[in-house]
Design a protein that fits this description.
Blueprint: E1 3-6, E2 9-12, H1 13-34, H2 41-62, H3 72-75, H4 84-101, H5 103-131, E3 140-143, E4 148-150, E5 159-164, H6 169-184, E6 189-195, H7 199-209, E7 216-219, H8 223-228, E8 235-239, E9 245-250, H9 255-262
Helix pairs in contact: 1-2, 1-5, 2-4, 4-5
Amino acid sequence: MLTFTLGTFAIALNHLLLISALVLATFVGWRVAKRGGENPESALFGLFLLGLLAARISFVLVYWSYYRNDAWQIVDLRDGGFLAWPGVVTLLLASAAWGWRRPALRKPLGFGVGSGVVFWVLASLSLNLYEQGTRLPDITLRNAAGETVQLTDYKGGPLVINLWATWCPPCRREMPVLENAQQKRSDLTFLFVNQGESMQSVSTFLATQGLSLSNVLFDSGGRLGQAVGSMALPTTLFYGADGRLLGSHLGELSEASLARALENFDDAPLSDTPSRKKLPCPASATC
């Protein structure tokens, strides 16, 4: 499962774990402060924001080549571009400095930060192990020619699967980024699996937007989203040649966040299975 869904509300599990870590840290700090000391609630929230800022700045610096020509993207956090460990290190150092300056805050803050960080690390590792144990679902889809195809027919090489819809604003914004990556990365197979829309509406959208995408597939019942545990759009999945899930991204992709996600393939094992089957595609259709 990649998202937690309640009615029409959906949140990525890694984001939920981060919020849960802050809540746990606040609760533990408050309980310790009741036995003597200063309530660390405001300090913990400030440290949380500082950690996020450090994680974002670190990401921008590492992937600066993608940001230098568009300063707005630096503050556009919708791409989810953060490096976790610089943020954690900054948070721990700032906590130590804060506790050193305010002795009454030292014990509650230390227990709060410690419990929150330990929970986040263990929960994130568990989620990562769970994700990477999942496999490419055996789902039947349709291509633009109306022919049925099996998703597992594409197994045998690195695979990027984007779940999207034309009514989804972040899906529309990230399409040029994915189109560009598909054209540049011939070593990867990109599949654009539309969720619940007609072929005509999708074809009209692609034509009016001037998008030229290969491997556009149709999932009328949204079964792929259900199979991978993500009911939010856009969702992008990264599978190795052996069909194992290497990573996922919920929300809009920028050039920088996509570049980071594609690094999942660097250490992925090569498949020892036969090359994936070449599926038929009429010259007039967008497959």
